[in-house]
């Protein structure tokens, strides 16, 4: 199979959120490096599976065959060393619906739920819109990386939190949590009997020297209190296909989750999502290995570029994800000015740091899941804008 991640694919006029909706979001044309999908084609086996069914021409109700469970279980074992039972899997249309369902299933209105900020914005929404109390356990910054604050986590658990939502790997910080970190986090949650929801959507995008560890795989004590959310959507660039799953080893938790979700009346999957998920987990590994090499090249490209040309911007070097958390504090701009600066002066669409909570002040998130030429164009635009800002 040939892989060409340098290929520039025109995504305009395809109703892409990232490319076409950007104009509404940013108020003008920008080079879009915001919402988390990639500008690469999916692996060929995924495209083939979809095209085959598209050509078939009959799109009736579709169920998930047993071999899909096998494909997921094999993937979890092979890639993440976690042996799961096939009946622990419960299919969902997305990870965000899974988090919301877990909040509804395992907490009551008024209960407290912990999140580790700055973090993916829908975590805030899942807690607040469901009438739960949000408890922030802010991450600590240390040498251009985030660390967990266990003292604060203990305090928040002591306040009676019923659930903690983990982002593993972490968006936007790019941390791939180490076994010791997850163990400490898990032990504290267990000591207060808090349920763990682990969003592992980015778990397959992990770079050399790091290893994703599903928190539920660490011990039976942790597996029996954890809801693990997974999806092929980030990994294989199929976010538009609504395919994901939760893995819940504990039967009681699994039943409660299923009973809660049943109330939505949603029970079939999108047939293209089903086809794509099976093809991706069964035949997508070789493509993924090549993708990881390319993305790691993009990280080095950003790091070198910033060091050489824009030393006032600092990269929190990601250990996983295709999202770069860029520290812009040395530009000395307030967040609203920073946002304006990137859109109006640089003509680039980034995600504002404060979209991930107030702890993201002074940061912007840049999606580098794109051909290097696009990345270079984005960095050139930023460079030019920063130079003109500093020459004033
Ligand atoms: C941490 C995290 N969770 C969930 C999602 C989205 O999940 P879904 O589209 O499956 O609802 C994203 C997308 O960026 C994400 O970064």
Explain what this protein looks like in three dimensions.
- This protein is an alpha/beta fold and 392 residues long.
- The chain folds into two domains: 22-42 and 285-390, Aspartate Aminotransferase, domain 1 (Alpha-Beta Complex), CATH 3.90.1150; 47-283, Type I PLP-dependent aspartate aminotransferase-like (Major domain) (Aspartate Aminotransferase, domain 2, 3-Layer(aba) Sandwich).
- It has 13 helices and 15 strands.
- The strands form four sheets. It has a seven-stranded mixed sheet with strand order 2-10-9-8-7-3-4, with helices on both faces.
- The longest helix has 25 residues, at 285-309.
- The protein is globular, with a radius of gyration of 21 Å.
Write the CATH architecture name of the largest domain. Answer: 3-Layer(aba) Sandwich
Can you give the helix content as a percent range?
40-55%
SSE order, one letter for each helix or strand: HEHHEHEHEEEHEHEHEEHHHEEHEEEH
The CATH topology of the largest domain turns out to be Aspartate Aminotransferase, domain 2
Shape: globular
Question: Which CATH class of the largest domain applies here?
Answer: Alpha Beta
Short synopsis of the structure:
40% of the residues lie in helices and 14% in strands. It has 392 residues and is an alpha/beta fold. A seven-stranded mixed beta sheet has the order 2-10-9-8-7-3-4, with helices on both faces.
């Amino acid at each position: 199979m040939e892989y060409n991640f340098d290929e520039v694919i025109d995504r305009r006029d395809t109703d892409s959120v990232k490319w076409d909706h950007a104009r509404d979001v940013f108020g003008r044309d920008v080079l879009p490096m915001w919402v988390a999908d990639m500008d690469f084609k999916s692996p060929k086996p995924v495209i083939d599976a979809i095209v085959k069914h598209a050509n078939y021409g009959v799109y009736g109700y579709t169920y998930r065959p047993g071999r899909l469970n096998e494909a997921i279980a094999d993937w979890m074992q092979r890639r993440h060393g976690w042996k799961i039972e096939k009946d622990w899997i419960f299919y969902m249309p997305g990870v965000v619906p899974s988090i919301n369902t877990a909040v509804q299933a395992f907490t009551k209105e008024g209960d407290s739920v912990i999140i580790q900020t700055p973090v993916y914005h829908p975590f805030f929404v899942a807690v607040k819109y469901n009438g739960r109390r949000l408890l922030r356990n802010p991450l600590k910054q240390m040498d251009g990386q985030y660390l967990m604050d266990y003292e604060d986590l203990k305090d928040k658990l002591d306040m009676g939190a019923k659930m903690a939502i983990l982002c593993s790997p972490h968006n936007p910080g790019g941390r791939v949590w180490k076994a010791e970190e997850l163990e400490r986090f898990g032990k504290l949650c267990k000591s207060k009997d808090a349920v763990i929801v682990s969003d592992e959507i980015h778990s397959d995008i992990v770079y050399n020297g790091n290893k994703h560890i599903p928190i539920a795989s660490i011990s039976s004590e942790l597996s029996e209190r954890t809801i693990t959310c997974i999806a092929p959507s980030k990994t294989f660039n199929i976010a538009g296909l609504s395919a994901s799953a939760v893995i819940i080893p504990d039967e009681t938790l699994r039943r409660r989750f299923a009973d809660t979700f049943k109330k939505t009346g949603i029970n079939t999957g999108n047939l293209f999502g089903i086809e794509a998920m099976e093809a991706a987990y069964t035949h997508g590994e070789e493509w993924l290995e090549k993708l990881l090499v390319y993305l790691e090249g993009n990280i080095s490209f950003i790091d070198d570029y910033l060091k050489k040309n824009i030393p006032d911007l600092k990269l929190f070097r990601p250990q996983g994800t295709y999202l770069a958390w860029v520290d812009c504090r040395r530009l000395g701009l307030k967040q609203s000015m920073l946002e304006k600066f990137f859109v109006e002066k640089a003509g680039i669409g980034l995600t504002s740091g404060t979209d991930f909570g107030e702890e993201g002040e002074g940061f912007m998130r840049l999606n580098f899941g794109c051909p290097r030429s696009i990345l270079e164009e984005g960095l050139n635009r930023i460079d030019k804008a920063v130079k003109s800002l500093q020459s004033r």
